[in-house]
Design a protein that fits this description.
Number of domains: 1
Structural class: alpha+beta
Number of strands: 6
CATH class: Alpha Beta
Helix content: 10-25%
CATH superfamily: Beta-grasp domain
CATH architecture: Roll
Length: 85
């Protein structure tokens, strides 16, 4: 079973430069210093959480997350796997 990663509902407005991306089907503003998927995970405090990430429809391995760049308009899905019965 999989579950979308819960991101903070508070969406800060950045006074400086920012870009808009879609994360889990919600438009989000990110500061321009968040330029890779790895930095995105750090931005949301997910660096120590196991999540599967799709970037513009392509599933990324952990290694690919370090080098995959984010640009305005990108579509990102982050899901985690949960157990249960």
């Amino acid at each position: 079973m999989q579950d979308s990663v819960a991101l903070p509902t508070f969406q800060p407005k950045y006074g400086g430069s920012h870009m808009e991306v879609t994360i889990n089907q919600q438009k989000r503003e990110l500061p321009n210093h968040v330029t890779t998927i790895e930095q995105l995970r750090e931005h949301f405090g997910l660096q120590n959480t196991v999540v599967m990430i799709e970037h513009n429809g392509a599933a990324l391995s952990v290694d690919e997350q370090n080098d995959t760049h984010i640009t305005a308009g990108d579509q990102i899905e982050m899901v985690r796997f949960v157990g249960g019965g």
